[in-house]
Structure formats: C-alpha cells, structure tokens
Amino acid sequence: MRTFLISQNDAGQRLDKFLTKAVPLLPTALLYKYIRLKRIKRNHQRCQSADRLREGDLLELYISDEFFSSPRTDEAFFHAPAQLDVLYEDENILVVNKPAGLIVHEDGREAWDTLINRILKYLYEKKEYDPARENSFVPALCNRIDRNTSGIVLAAKNAPALRELNQRIRDRKLVKRYVCVVHGRMPRREDTLRAYLKKDADKNQVRVYPQPVPGGRTIQTAYRVLAEKEDLSLLQIGLLTGRTHQIRAHMAYLGHPLLGDGKYGKSDGRQRGWRFQALCAYQVRFAFSDSGGPLDYLNGKTVAVPQVDFVQALFPEAAALLLRQEEKDGA
Q1: Active site (annotated) includes residue 146
Q2: How do residues 254-305 score in pLDDT, each as one tens digit?
Q3: Using CA atoms, how far apart are residues 273 and 222, in angstroms rounded to an integer?
Q4: Rounded to the nearest 10 degrees, how much is the dihedral formed by the CA atoms of 108, 109, 115, 119?
Q5: DSSP characters over 71-127
Q6: In degrees, to the nearest 5, what angle opens at C-alpha 311 toward C-alphas 305 and 317?
Q7: Fewest CB within a 10 Å sphere: which of 8, 93, 159, 214?
C-alpha cells in the first residue's frame, strides 16, 4: 500500500487528474478500475474519480509497487545555469526578465537550459521547492515569450497562485506592454490597428490579412512612437488581443518589420549591433481588484525591466523617456 497526504499544492484537483500525475506509470484503464474496486480510497472511504481533493485528505492506494517509480535523481533543472534576473518576488509568484536567446520550455533542441529549469533550480537552492516533497505540483510559468524575444515572464510558486494567475491572464486582468524597434517611420505618432491573423502550425508561422479569413482570428495592436532615428522607430506596443507572433507579424504586414526578425522581416540585427529581434516584454501591471483571490495584494502593482538592451544600444537618448513612461503607467 502507498499513501498520499494532500497538500495545499494538490488540493482542488480531481482525484483522477491528481493520480495521473502522482502515479504516471499506472495505466488510465487500471486507475478507473481500481477506483471502482475500492483499491483506491480517500480518507478510508470509497471515492469517485471526479472527487475534488482537499488539503489534509489521505489517499490510500492498494496497488502493486511496480506502478511506483523510484525517486528521480536526474532532474534536468539540476544542470541548468544559475543565472536568473529576478524583477519581483514574494511567497507566491516570481517575475523574471528572460534574456533573448533563452527558450522558456524544453524543445527538441534544448532539454535542460530553459527558463523554467533555471527557475526550478533557483527555488530549489532557496529551499522553496523540492520535488521529493511534492506529490504532483511543480512551479510553473504563467506566460511565455519567443526564444529570441526578451522580457517579463511570470511564474507561480504554488498551486493557488498558479490557478489565479492563469485565470487573470485569461480574463485579461494583467496589462502587458512591449517595446520594439521597427524599420521605417510610422504614419501616425500613435494608433490602434486591427487585422486578422491565421496560424500555420506546420511552419510555426502566421499570416496577417486585412479581411476575415477562414480559420483567422481578429488582432488589435496599439502603438506609440517613442523615438525615431534615421530609418528606425522605437515603439511602445500594447496588445488588445494576444495572438502568436502578433507584434512581429502585424508590424511586418504594415511594412515595418522588427529589426533583426528573420522570420517576418530580415536578419539585419547584427549590422546594428543586435543579435536578436528587437522586441522586449518590458512591463506588466496587475489589475484584478475584484478577484477575491490570494493575489489581491498585487492589484495596481507595476513591474518593469529597468534597462532594455537594444534601447540602450540603439536609442540611448530615449532610455530616460521609456523610464518616465514606466513611472507614469505605474502611477
């Protein structure tokens, strides 16, 4: 017999969903069969697969030891670099500045040096996360940005914070702003633009259209010109919709591709001294005063990247302007 004591990070899940993560070697068909045969009990009583777990519940599993894997000692995050730029942190969340060139989750090319693994290593070394003490929960990212985009990524340290942050993001209660450098000069100092975007999953690319198209989704992008120099413009971007590659594709569609964006423009960033696309998610403001959740204390708080590399390199005279804009937005 094996037992699981449900912690705060496990509570709120359906029984079957919890067991799928806690006992991954147990086949799904057997899981439901064992629940029906009362070989899986909750607080010494019969349970149902849809039962919602509560903190303090005791699960008893009368099943073969073969379904329980040995504790892992090869966690990928142990091998991740220690570098992490923390912008804000409390007992529930972590806000970090991801450098351009670092992927957020592992893919076919990179399995260990990822942003999430750097975060897990950071929390492990602070003794705030230990996989050996968790039944099913792992600290997780609540948003993601492209490998070659820099800027703010939010992570939740516990399950209640993860649920609330994910819901607030879905409800658009977090206001994110971006800064980028584009080719050419915009027709207006500021504007809100509307178009339609369709994703090509096979190519991991999107196309933008002026009219609705089958499978397309509406996009709205607001921009403000912060500075201009020769054939480049520094823009602040606000997204009224959040679609894949929205800023990069929308700007390219308008004839103003991002500097250094080889996918939607041209790979010319190195000529200007910049290795990646000049795009940074530089600011987030929490705006969910009516949530009634555990993160209410964050309402009205603004977190920003203090210095954006390509702004310093290409528009040093505008860096102070961007900082003043941050202070105004956070007021």
Answers
A1: yes
A2: 999 999 998 998 777 667 667 889 999 999 999 987 777 889 999 999 999 9
A3: 27
A4: 80
A5: PPS--GGGGS-----EEEE-SSEEEEEEPTT--SS--SS-SSSSHHHHHHHHHHHTT
A6: 115
A7: 214
Residue 134 three-state SS: coil
15: helix, strand or coil? helix
Amino acid at 76: A
Alpha helix ranges (H) inside 194-294: 246-253
Helix, strand, or coil (residue 299): coil
Place of tokens 């499978």: 215
* pTM of the model as a whole: 0.85
Q: Which of 51, 65, 130, 146 is catalytic?
A: 146
| 96: its two tokens | 């970090």
Residue 116 identity? I
Token pair 């149902």 in the structure block, residue: 48
Name the CA radius of gyration of the chain, rounded.
Answer: 23
